[in-house]
Amino acid sequence: MKIAIVGSGAIGLYYGALLQRNGHEVAFLMRSDLEVAKRDGVRVIRTDDEFTLDRVAAFGDSEEIGVSDLVIVSIKATANQSLPKMLDPLVDETTQLLTLQNGLGNDQFLKARFPNNKVFGGLCFVCLNRIAPAVVKNFMKGSVSIGPSDGADASEAETLVSVFSEAGVKARFEPDLLGIQWKKLVWNVPFNGLAIAAGGVCTDVIVESPELCSEAKALMEEIMAAANQFGYTFRDGFADYQIEITQPMGPYRPSSMIDFVEGRPVEVEAIWGEPLRQAKAAGVAMPKLEMLYALLKRICK
Amino acid sequence: MKIAIVGSGAIGLYYGALLQRNGHEVAFLMRSDLEVAKRDGVRVIRTDDEFTLDRVAAFGDSEEIGVSDLVIVSIKATANQSLPKMLDPLVDETTQLLTLQNGLGNDQFLKARFPNNKVFGGLCFVCLNRIAPAVVKNFMKGSVSIGPSDGADASEAETLVSVFSEAGVKARFEPDLLGIQWKKLVWNVPFNGLAIAAGGVCTDVIVESPELCSEAKALMEEIMAAANQFGYTFRDGFADYQIEITQPMGPYRPSSMIDFVEGRPVEVEAIWGEPLRQAKAAGVAMPKLEMLYALLKRICK
Q: Where is the Ketopantoate reductase C-terminal domain (chains A, B) (predicted)?
């Protein structure tokens, strides 16, 4: 399968490398890491193994890649305005598109541009840091949940799930894409947000501070109430479970916090702004998220 | 009247200078500005006038000052644990104590130490910055509201009001000290707090950002609801009025924000922690203040 990875940050590098290792023809669209990847390949470090792909097909322009069977969009949502130009050369009528981007609104964005193509969304519950150019470190293997955007075929989403499963990624089919997008926000909204707003701290600081941990849980309750409004329900204790799975991560730096401290754009609208707007429009009160969003919008300006 | 100023930051310098100019025998207890004040005096810059007191009685140790008629406490509340040692040499049974400190709990602290003395609290609604050693700049003259702490005599508070009035300070008697302490928090909690939490911004950024201004007003509503619970009521539109009086201040740096950006201790407990605890104990929900306090406690660590 010819797979184009659009946006080769931590997520793109990691899944692209695993898919290439499993025999797919993977093309990485890159910017900052391009020369290093061409020279040294892509390196993946995990807790129990590490590997280097000595040769990768790395490109700076999607014209050089051409039409692909599958396009995985892993560019930051803050750069969505540049996406059409990057995607057009990669897409014909049979191309499938899968966005692994954070937050809400990204699959709708692709569907609006390519209304006749199959569009899917994938949610990566994983801990990854790009620790050097073309080097990605994985802290927790986690899983990928893939579902069809409005109008896409569920069975084709299941085929995509197999592509990931066969590459060694725990992947599952999720019929309710919007639901799992909200589900991922249950972690991302508090931990990415508080890590920035509390001054650039790691997740251990949040779970170990009684006040910050209480705010994290209150934010989760707001997100879950909003998700309920959109038809997604959570099992009892889901917020506590988020804290429990975060504890063993230790001094983990959430991706948005890394973006922030390194001076890169932060996905403020995709992760905090759009959920706040959608929830408020659905009548859900979000006093904590309002405060966090107001601060982040300024801090990340 | 022999007046000792304990803590010669912006507040202490400003009111001490005005009182000395009006003929009182003022002694400034100082630390960082001591040598400059001894050599150059104290300078006050206001929008419509400025003056220098060439000679001031500046001391580094309150033993050198001795017993005073009035002790004005204007040290940071974060340093309250050092207060007894500073105050003991200044106080005999006739000494009056007036705290001009921010936040809640400071007059009770003095009363606990000097149970037989008259203790008063004063709230300074004023914009001051100490712009250089022993130089204080005034942006808005504002007013001082003075009231008796539990058990102190109202008529003596009125005498204190005259001391300030005669020195050219708009001063008023307030029988309900706790009420005006909450009233001052209506401005201090949002503007000092958001200025820090939004990354070290001035008040103009807060009033000009729709999101931050909305959060500022929501914080004010919480503080006013708490004050109501303690018997203090506000006229309609009081929160909007706070925004209105803040607009002409322009790029004003609230005192806590200056402390924060200059690496000095911030009065997190007096301004945010103690009000939150008192309000929650009185059954008032404070979702916004909880979030702000959790962030500030970490940011100002």
A: 176-298
